[in-house]
Every structure is written in C-alpha cells, then in structure tokens.
C-alpha cells in the first residue's frame, strides 16, 4: 500500500482535497484527529500527562483540560519536548494501526493528511508528497471569513509552520488552490491518476 502525504499551510484546503480523495475511494488518516484520539478519556497518555504536568491537567471526569496543559507545556522548549515525548510515540502507534487497517481493507493507497508533514520530516516516509498551495493572504482571508478566526491568530500560526517555499520544495505534486474550489476537480483527477500509476 502506498502512503500519500497530503500537506499545506493552515487554511490551504487540505481538508477540502482530503474530502475529494475520500470521495474517490481512498481511506484518509487525519493527523490532527490522531493527536486528539490519543488524549481521549481512558487513554494511557493521560495518566502520564497528569504525572508530568500536574493532576489538574485532568478534570473530575478524567478528561484533558487542554488550556491548562497548554499553559504548562508551551512555556519553553524543555516542557514542549516533555509533552511530545508522551504523545508522539502514541500518535505514531495509532497511525501505524490506522494504516494497517486500511491495508487490511484492501486499499492500494492511504491519504495521510498531516499539516506538519514537512516540519516533522514525515514526508520522507511517503511514496508521494502532495502540497496544497495558496498564497498566505488568501489563506488568512478564507480562515477569517469561513472559520471566524482572528487574523492575528492565523498569522501567528502560519509563522510557526514551514514557509511555503520549504514546503513546495518537498512536494512531488503541487495542487494550486488559489482559485475556486471547482478548479480543484481536474487537479484531483490528475492526482488520482498519478496515485494509480505508483
Ligand atoms: P485546511 O484543512 O488546509 O486548514 P480547509 O480545507 O479547511 O483547509 O480550507 C480552509 C477554508 O477555506 C475552509 O472554510 C474551506 O471551505 C475554504 N476553502 C477551501 N478551498 C477554497 C477555495 N478554493 N475557495 C474558497 N474557499 C476555500
């Protein structure tokens, strides 16, 4: 089974393209979703997070208080690394399990929708790297308009990601999403043909 890495900056349209690939019949593994799943109530990572960052990162029901954790984990590099050392191995394990499930179901390719694919070097494990590309100002405009985010918040998050040049350099395929959503159809069709030819 081939692994197709799908990435792009926040607001570039990854989820939109992932949805189209799902419609074309490909299983999609969403990295953001994996990161949420490993800290669902009852997951082993939660006890480790409580031990590392304090019991009050969990509420009375045992659910993660994300804001409290963030206020302790994102204070410096050392604490951020501590957080990552707890969650990352579990995220990798769950990703491998989701890939194995897709393969067992007979998929010829799985789409790995991963915002930080290039930043974390996971692009090297992919058979094809697809970058959804949109100019920064248009991404800010879409996220403010469609998702109601504050422009300053969007710009701060964009600044934490790879710049577009670095991301494009890692791409095997670039999907240009500067135009209308309808302009994605032909590009996704070409991508499907490319995946089938792998
Ligand atoms: P990502 O998953 O990369 O953050 P999304 O697919 O959620 O991006 O797209 C960000 C927002 O922009 C969504 O509200 C989406 O509906 C909208 N969007 C995506 N592509 C286009 C487009 N070509 N034109 C206008 N809006 C778009």
From TrEMBL:
<comment type="similarity">
    <text>Belongs to the CoaE family.</text>
</comment>
<comment type="function">
    <text>Catalyzes the phosphorylation of the 3'-hydroxyl group of dephosphocoenzyme A to form coenzyme A.</text>
</comment>
<keyword id="KW-0173">Coenzyme A biosynthesis</keyword>
<keyword id="KW-0547">Nucleotide-binding</keyword>
<feature type="binding site">
    <location>
        <begin position="11"/>
        <end position="16"/>
    </location>
    <ligand>
        <name>ATP</name>
    </ligand>
</feature>
<dbReference type="GO" id="GO:0004140">
    <property type="term" value="F:dephospho-CoA kinase activity"/>
</dbReference>
<keyword id="KW-0963">Cytoplasm</keyword>
<dbReference type="Pfam" id="PF01121">
    <property type="entry name" value="CoaE"/>
</dbReference>
<comment type="pathway">
    <text>Cofactor biosynthesis; coenzyme A biosynthesis; CoA from (R)-pantothenate: step 5/5.</text>
</comment>
<keyword id="KW-0067">ATP-binding</keyword>
<protein>
    <recommendedName>
        <fullName>Dephospho-CoA kinase</fullName>
        <ecNumber>2.7.1.24</ecNumber>
    </recommendedName>
</protein>
<keyword id="KW-0418">Kinase</keyword>
<dbReference type="InterPro" id="IPR027417">
    <property type="entry name" value="P-loop_NTPase"/>
</dbReference>
<keyword id="KW-0808">Transferase</keyword>
<dbReference type="InterPro" id="IPR001977">
    <property type="entry name" value="Depp_CoAkinase"/>
</dbReference>
């Amino acid at each position: 089974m081939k692994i197709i890495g799908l990435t792009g900056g926040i607001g570039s349209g990854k989820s939109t393209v992932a949805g189209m690939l799902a419609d074309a019949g490909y299983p999609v593994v969403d990295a953001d979703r994996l990161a949420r799943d490993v800290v669902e109530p009852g997951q082993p990572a939660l006890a480790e997070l409580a031990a590392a960052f304090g019991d009050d990162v969990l509420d009375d029901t045992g659910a993660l208080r994300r804001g409290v954790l963030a206020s302790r984990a994102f204070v410096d590099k050392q604490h951020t690394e501590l957080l990552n050392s707890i969650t990352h191995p579990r995220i990798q394990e769950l990703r491998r399990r989701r890939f194995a499930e897709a393969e067992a179901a007979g998929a010829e390719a799985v789409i790995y929708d991963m915002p930080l694919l290039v930043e974390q070097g996971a692009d090297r494990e992919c058979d094809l790297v697809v970058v959804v590309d949109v100019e920064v100002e248009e991404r800010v405009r879409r996220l403010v308009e469609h998702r109601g985010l504050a422009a300053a918040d969007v710009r701060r998050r964009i600044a934490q990601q790879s710049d577009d040049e670095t991301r494009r350099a890692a791409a095997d395929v670039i999907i240009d999403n500067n135009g209308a959503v309808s302009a994605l159809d032909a590009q996704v069709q070409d991508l499907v043909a490319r995946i089938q030819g792998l």
